[in-house]
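The aim of this short unit is practical: by the end, you should be able to scan a pair of folded records and say something sensible about each. We start with the first protein, listed as its amino acid sequence and then its structure tokens.
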Amino acid sequence: MFRNLLTRLFADSTDQTRLNGQDAEVAVASLLVRLARADDHYGVVEQQRIDQVLARRRGLTRIEAAEKRAAAEMIEAEAPDTVRFTRTIKERVELQDRQKIIAALWEVAYADGQRDPEEEALVRLVAGLLGVNDRDSALARNQALDDLGQVDS
């Protein structure tokens, strides 16, 4: 199952077909996991935040979201580099949804209450790779900080 999904996600880049809903959500979940693992501290708080984001995005139950995250953890561990991974999402997910993905990434980045330079750098890199401009990424970042009760410094 996971091998087939990896094949679909990273198939020939000339294939401009949209990922189906389930594949696209696993790709997004995998990107969230990749971010949470960026600082080598992938804990329960980040896992729970990813579950919340996934549940909110597609109306999943808590159990369904946790299952999707578990699948994403396996996919992320085998996925190629972030550049190729995000290229796949950019080619197959609409811009408006990519902006929401960046907002979710910022939310996960700050979920543990820590400002980590590796995570922040990865979100900025992914935003650029997904074609989300700096202004929209900064607005999403500030909203995530506000929502989590953190002060921007």
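Turning to the second protein, read its sequence before its tokens, just as you did above.
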Amino acid sequence: NILLKGTPGTGKSTLGLELSERLKFDYICVGDIAKKEELYNGYDEEYQCPFLDEDKVVDELEERLSRGKCIVDYHSCEFFPERWFDIVFVLRTDTNILYDRLEKRGYSEKKLQDNVQCEIFQTILEEARSSYREEIVHELKSNVPSDMESNIERIVEWTKLYRTNNGLS
């Protein structure tokens, strides 16, 4: 299983969907599943979004992830069991590019600023490093389309090598 993390707007969904097609893995966008299955426990008025019920998310995903060959897309990770993931990729985007992407999504000024600060302070990367073994956490630049293609190639190659080394088909 592969975990894709990053501040909103770094390209997790685009990367995850393309990887799932190339690798024939299941693509799991935690936000989409939470919405579909109503895995919430309240609402944040300040950010205008629901609070994720992390326990319900773990319960919902446990069986799928235990089968393997999944790509999980979410910005946070501290509530996921470490055993779920063989590798974690954290997408990073230059803040001026990130700001423009989030502005196009219609984010409020507060949400824009908070997400850009999150990227400046490497909050998502540090969370991954504190939640998983250092050797499975990898930082990837995600600024331009050529970054996306090189990230896809890198992850596809890593997956092939991992599966070969572990006797998996």
